[in-house]
Amino acid sequence: MKSLPYFRFIFVVLVACLLGSALAGCTLFSTIGGWFSGGYENTIAYFNAYYNARRIFVEAEAEVLNTELSARGKQSPTLQAGQISPAAKQKFTQVIDKCSHILSFYPESAVVDDALLLIGKSYYYQRDYVRAERKFSELLAQFPGGSLRLVGQLWFLKTLDKLKLYDDAIAVGEALANDAEEAGEKDVAGEARAILGSILTAQDLPLRAIEQYTEAVRVTGDGLLRAEAQCKIGDLYFSSKDYENASAAYLRVTQYSPDVYLTYYSRLQAALAFRHLKKHDTTIALLNELQDDYRLNDYVGMIRLELGITYMLSGRTADAVHEYRYVDTTYARTEIGARGAFELGKLLQSHYGDYEDAKLAYTHATQNPALPIAPEAQRRVAALDRYFRLQDEFAKTDSVLFVLDVDTLWIRHDTLDRTATFDFRAKQPDSLVVLIDSSAAPLDSSAIAQAIDSTLVDPDSARTTADTSLPTMQKPSRDSLNVVLSRVAFEIGEVFYSDLEIADSAFFWYNQSLKLYVDSARAPRTLFVLGEIMRADSARRYGDEQEMYQRLLGQFPTSLYAEQARIILGLHSIPAWVDPAATIYADAESLMDAGQYARALAMLKTIVEEHAASSFAAKSKYAMGWIYEHYLSNPDSALSNYEQVANQYGSTAYGAAARRRLPSASVTAPSDTTAKAPPQQPTDPARRLELRDADDEKTKPAPPDSVGGARGKRRVVVD
What DSSP line would sit under 461-489, residue for residue? Predict the structure, then answer.
């Protein structure tokens, strides 16, 4: 019965409400109806669209964030930095469609601001930053005091950063960080400070960036965010070469988060900072700690690679080789493995001088051509291949020079003009008899290599018959061998200087080239590079570079390298010098075109006799041989001129061409050498070079010179 007064009270209140409603008309009922109508719209909008959109968005965002976290420190072969998978992109498109449905059909619902935020975030993850910026601006304009204001401003700041609108972003970020901190939203404030640090880093303002990252570490309570900001501080100090502060910053990272990657990255970078400070023992201790941490098994390859580099820098080369070999074999065909192989090749090449194993290591580094280090490794493999070929050529030529004075080993012509030959088909590995390939001309490097390969002949098989089918060769001149050795030494020096970057070896071989033979085409560059090696050596082990530059100016004052030497020495340049032989040669060529071969020969002879130092001397002498062979049908004179070119200018393109012409010029001449018989068709015309410029021959088929052939201009060609 105690409840009776309570029910009476309720009854009185209801009656009063009804009477009040009657007096007030339908206002109350319309308000109640509106409330029920709004609630219905909110319910339909939430369950029909927003609920599903929110669920799909959470799934897609988690996929993107997890991918970003797992990709740290790795390179994906399918996705570039910032890209998302097609599946995630499709999910974000569904979110945009569902939330757009809310804006179109339920514009008065309570989830409109949430829908705008989801649309903006979806566009952001899809990297459509312009549309994302538009939606975040719309959210902030429609709901300036709403509950999503700070979150909306944070995403608006992220979008401005991506659009590189840095001035606007800094203004928005500073205001947001202060407002969020005052409102107690410390994670929002910390993230805003971190974004400001990223923007200032992009603007190359490291000190201001460090201040923002330091504020982020102070403000936020998110451990992962604090650890990431602390890593950024270390990175900025490291890039500024402030390795003391960098190492200290990196070592503080693990105080904020146990994240595996950040633990690995920060400790590794701290070790590298100590290595820059030449604290190798501390570096090795840190790297060994990382190697022993079972959580970091995915990063052991990089850890051991850096350990090998540290061993190498500290002088423990044997330990470095061990680490490099481990990385090379364990992580073959990966970027880490390629780097290990490349570092191994560098160490074997520079420290041990083991070029065979160095080449093998570089070859391992080329196994995956898509890796960034592969092109440089391929270049070094090619350089070492060239070195081995040149070294072999030098050794064989030098062996010929060594036995040059042993007359019993060389072929001689007897009094009956019968050529003594050896049967080189029956090679015996224990023979010491030397057989030289046939040609009375001086040898080029390929001929010498072929000859030495055929030196091991059984002396019992030698016979003195007139069998002209067997190749024979007279004793080469010492000068021609020195010319070949000088050229090969120069090319080896080029390999060491330009390709392998080993100054000591380059200096040695360039000097060998000058000692063996001073060639006017190579010597200017040789002297200049020797001067450059001297100038680059801070220890002054090679001498004074000025002496080398002065020698260059004294011996080759008109060369391009001499002009560069003048600039280095601070001397005035000299006016460009025009070779007078060039004009004479052009006139001789015109006479040759007109068929006036005698006058052309006279002018060419003038160049050879009066301008012997000119680059046109070799060209003119070769042209004389060409005229005798092809236009005057005088192979004896042609042979004589070709031999002189091969002897005097053996290292030039004309010397090499003359050696190739010697066999064809040896064809028996007609009895009347002055008769203009139909000229012989030059061999292999498709591969001949038109002799238009002594320094820059261009490949071009020569016009046929046979009777009935093309009647164009006649040219001297190098075949």
Answer: G-B----TTS--BPPPPHHHHHHHHHHHH
- In the sheet that 717-718 helps form, which strands lie side by side, from edge to edge? 698-699, 689-690, 717-718
Domain 587-718 CATH assignment equals 1.25.40: yes
Return d(Cα 522, Cα 561) in angstroms, integer: 11
Amino acid at position 442, single letter: P
Distances (CA, A) of 30 to 19, 25, 27, 107, 498: 16, 10, 5, 21, 91
Per-residue pLDDT of 278-289, as tens digits, reads 999 999 999 999
Written as one letter, the residue type at 517 is: Y
- Listed in sequence order, the DSSP H helices in 220-259 are 223-239, 243-251
Residue 573 CB partners (closer than 8 Å, separation 6+): 563, 566, 567
SS (H, E, C) 497-553: HHHCCCHHHHHHHHHHHHHHCCCCCCHHHHHHHHHHHHHHCCCCCCCCHHHHHHHHH
Q: Burial code of 487-505, b = ≥16 C-beta within 10 A, e = fewer?
A: bbbbbbbbbbbebbeebeb
DSSP-derived 3-state class of residue 29? helix
Q: What is the mean pLDDT of residues 376-404?
A: 93
In eight-state DSSP terms, residue 392 is H
Q: Which of 10-19, 28-37, 216-225, 346-355 has the lowest mean pLDDT?
A: 28-37
Give residue 241's Cα distance to chain centre: 25
Measured CA to CA, the distance from residue 697 to residue 521 in angstroms comes to 15
Tally the C-alpha atoms within 13 A of residue 433's C-alpha that lie toward its C-beta: 19
For the chain, the distance separating the N- and C-terminal CA atoms, rounded to the nearest angstrom, is 130
Q: For 355, what's the count of Cα atoms within 13 Å in the CB-facing half-sphere?
A: 16
- pLDDT computed for residue 321 by the predictor: 97
Q: How far apart are CA 700 and CA 718, in angstroms?
A: 10
- Say if CB 165 and CB 174 are below 8 A apart: no
CA distance 275 to 270: 9
Residue 664's Cβ-count burial label (10 Å; 0-12, 13-18, 19+) is: middle
Section 83-103 average pLDDT: 91
**Element housing 717 (H / E):** strand 717-718
- Exposure on the CB side of residue 166, measured as CA atoms within 13 A: 11
Q: What pTM, to 2 d.p., does this model score?
A: 0.67
> Look-up: residue for tokens 């000591």?
504
Q: 647, 640, 636, 616: which is closest to 716 by C-alpha?
A: 616
Distance CA 213, CA 219 (A): 10
Residues in a beta bridge with 717: 690
Whether 440 shows a pLDDT value over 70: the answer reads no
Query: Which residue type is seen at 529?
Result: V
Long-range contacts of 708-712 (CB under 8 A, 24+ apart): none
Q: Contact 498/467 with Cβ under 8 angstroms?
A: no
Extended beta strands in 604-646, E state:
none
pLDDT tens column, 448-497: 444 444 444 444 443 344 344 434 456 788 888 999 999 999 999 999 99
If one compares 534 and 717, the residue with the highest pLDDT of the two is 534
In angstroms, the CA 632 to CA 248 distance is 86
Both structure tokens of 85: 């998978």
Domain coordinates in residue numbering, the chain: 34-63+82-127, 587-718
Q: How far is CA 458 from CA 225, 362, 439, in A?
A: 82, 41, 22
| Residue-level pLDDT at 250 | 97
Q: Are 150 and 188 in contact (CB under 8 A)?
A: yes
CA-CA distance, 205 to 203, in Å (whole number)? 6
Q: Where does the pLDDT of residue 667 fall: very low under 50, low under 70, confident under 90, or very high at 90 and above?
A: low
Residue at token pair 């007109």: 594
